[in-house]
Write a structure and sequence with these properties.
The protein is an alpha/beta fold. The protein folds into 2 domains: 118 residues, 3-Layer(aba) Sandwich (Rossmann fold); 165 residues, Dihydrodipicolinate Reductase, domain 2 (2-Layer Sandwich). It is 33% helix and 23% strand. The chain is built from 10 helices and 15 strands. The strands form 2 sheets. It has a 9-stranded mixed β-sheet. It has a 6-stranded parallel β-sheet with strand order 3-2-1-4-5-6, sandwiched between helices. Helix 5 packs antiparallel against helix 10 and helix 6 runs parallel beside helix 8. It starts with a strand and ends with a strand. It binds nicotinamide-adenine-dinucleotide (NAD). The site of nicotinamide-adenine-dinucleotide has 25 residues, from loops. The site of nicotinamide-adenine-dinucleotide (NAD) has 25 residues, from loops.
């Protein structure tokens, strides 16, 4: 039995707790939240031990693995502390808010015997898994370009419910680091990390409310030339599934969280879609990612283990930070 602790008992924590408690070989044993009433309610709901301070959860010897589900600025120190305490780590996205902090985590992971992954659950959407397999088989010829677009709705209610959002110091950015980062992860994972990027950010409808960007546009370039066009906005009226279009020599491909369309033909996916806890725009991937994380730790065979976002989780953060830097300098940023 793999015993888990969750650090941060907010919105996303229930998706992790409910998934873990449905698994025969994993169990949520402890939770931690700096807000005692939030943590105690969560502990009562999931029948686990409550800690106010994460250092106390990390010295609980019953705990084998932790989920980090706290505000972005805490991911760096909590990941390092959890690895140092010999816990396996599943950290919610992003890895960190600064690239040098993410590099420090990767260095610690490489020295550690523990398993560390970042929760880019969309990789485990059936459409993403199917396309990854097809790309591995090199089915479509050369790539001419990629177009990635996210238009979502985030408003006063969203930002005022959790005050760490909307601030550079605690969220680390806006629509790019919080929402579009999933699509940027998908691009890097599916076709490779771009070589350089140039982009700009702006704040428009939400500028009275937040100090970070509510929209962004950028162009990235892969080593062998194809452009990747990236656009993101939190100013739309609703939350359609983000779309990534791939213009291959032999195929026009549209990937969304739920569908894979190749040359206007929708590909039939292998399993029916399950209903899971949480908001629909979080997608269906969390249970499959968590299952795969547990399988890797417990030594089960699972063909999805190589898809888990490990050291390469830094690539999407490099794109985000590259756009922020490019906005400041109005120059291309090399993504070394
Ligand atoms: N993968 C996804 O699709 C997805 C979806 C939603 C959120 N997230 C990520 O999950 C993380 C949490 O987001 P959320 O929406 O659940 O936020 P939230 O604000 O609802 O929850 C965060 C919790 O962390 C607690 N916390 C803050 N400081 C703490 C500390 N020092 N020690 C312990 N607890 C502390 C807060 O009190 C709060 O309850 C973020 O990284 C976010 O980007 C991911």
């Amino acid at each position: 039995m793999l015993n888990f602790g969750i650090i941060g008992c907010g919105n996303i924590a229930s998706v992790h707790a409910e998934t873990l408690n449905q698994m025969p070989d994993a169990k949520l044993r402890a939770c931690c939240d700096i807000e005692t009433s939030v943590g105690e309610n969560f502990a009562a709901r999931y029948q686990c031990q409550f800690y106010q301070y994460y250092a106390d959860l990390l010295i609980d010897e019953r705990i084998d693995a932790v989920v980090i589900a706290t505000p972005h600025f805490l991911h760096h120190e909590m990941s390092l502390a959890a690895l140092a305490a010999n816990k396996h780590v599943l950290c919610e996205k992003p890895m960190a808010i600064k690239l040098e902090d993410a590099r420090e985590i990767n260095a610690a992971v490489q020295k550690s015997k523990q398993i560390y992954h970042v929760c880019y659950q969309n990789r485990f959407n059936l459409a993403f898994v199917k396309l990854k397999k097809m790309l591995n088989e090199n089915s479509f010829g050369s790539l001419h370009g990629v177009n990635c677009s996210l238009t979502w709705h985030r408003d006063n209610n969203y930002y005022s419910a959790n005050t760490w959002r909307g601030k550079w110091a605690t969220e680390g950015g806006g629509v790019l680091i919080n929402q579009a980062i999933h699509s940027l992860d998908a691009i890097c994972w599916l076709i490779g990390k771009p070589q350089r990027i140039k982009g700009t950010i702006l704040s428009s409808l939400l500028s009275e409310l937040i100090e970070v960007e509510d929209a962004a546009i950028a162009t990235a370039v892969l080593e062998n030339g194809p452009p990747i066009v990236i656009s993101a906005s939190n100013n739309y009226s609703t939350n359609p599934s983000p779309a990534i279009d791939f213009d291959f020599e032999g195929a026009a491909i549209r990937l969304t969280n739920e569908s894979l369309i190749i040359n206007e033909q929708e590909i039939v996916l292998d399993e029916p879609k399950a209903t899971i806890a949480g908001k629909s725009y979080w997608g269906q991937g969390h249970p499959r990612l968590i299952r795969t994380f547990v399988n890797e730790i417990t030594g089960q065979t699972d063909e999805l283990i190589p898809y888990l976002p490990r050291l390469d989780a830094i690539d999407s953060l490099a794109l985000v930070c590259g756009i922020y830097q490019s906005h400041q300098t109005n120059q291309w940023v090399e993504l070394v």
